[in-house]
Write a structure and sequence with these properties.
Helices cover about 75% and strands about 0% of the residues. It is an all-alpha fold and about 180 residues long. The two termini are about 45 Å apart.
Length: about 180
């Protein structure tokens, strides 16, 4: 009889520990998503903050893209999501896993677009400075315009993803689910 009650007690302790681990995992990932959203919201607000709102209405996408890459990209990560990968299937419903995975993929897309913009700007600068330092006449030098050509489309994509994430909010927010 004592052996049976001990096994039952051990089983209950293990069940409680598992439940605590599940709740902790859920909370950590929820908080990570909230932090990512707040960082993104602050970044987006700073990018679009305008002192002279009427003048900035006509600001070109190229200028906004240049301003974007001059700002440090916020730290948007999914460390807790990856760290607790082994617990995801017991912590979340399939729908939640898909939602958080999509959320994290969007954050990765934003970081990728940001990197592409930085790389394009850097390549243009290097290309143009190489020719400028060669001593040839400035008017006869070829100029790289890849940033000007690709930045508007990348900025549109960045904006679409950002506004979508901010509108949807945290995929684990119970008020929305």
């Amino acid at each position: 009889m004592g052996l049976g009650s001990r096994e039952l007690s051990d089983w209950r302790k293990a069940k409680k520990a598992r439940k605590r681990k599940i709740n902790s995992t859920r909370t950590l990932i929820l908080l990570e998503n909230e932090r990512n959203l707040e960082s993104l919201k602050e970044f987006w607000y700073k990018l679009n903050k305008s002192d002279e709102s009427e003048e900035n209405m006509d600001e070109s996408k190229i200028d906004i893209a240049k301003r974007l890459i001059k700002m440090p990209m916020p730290c948007l990560d999914d460390f807790m999501w990856r760290k607790h990968a082994s617990l995801l299937t017991i912590t979340f419903k399939d729908k939640e896993i898909v939602a958080v995975s999509t959320f994290n993929n969007c954050l990765e897309s934003l970081k990728s677009i940001y990197s592409k913009l930085v790389d394009l700007d850097t390549m243009d600068r290097e290309f143009n400075s190489t020719y400028a330092s060669s001593g040839a006449e400035l008017s006869s030098l070829p100029h790289s315009n890849r940033f000007k050509e690709e930045a508007p489309g990348l900025l549109d994509e960045f904006e679409e993803i950002t506004l979508g994430l901010l509108k949807k909010g945290n995929p684990l927010d119970k008020k929305k689910n």
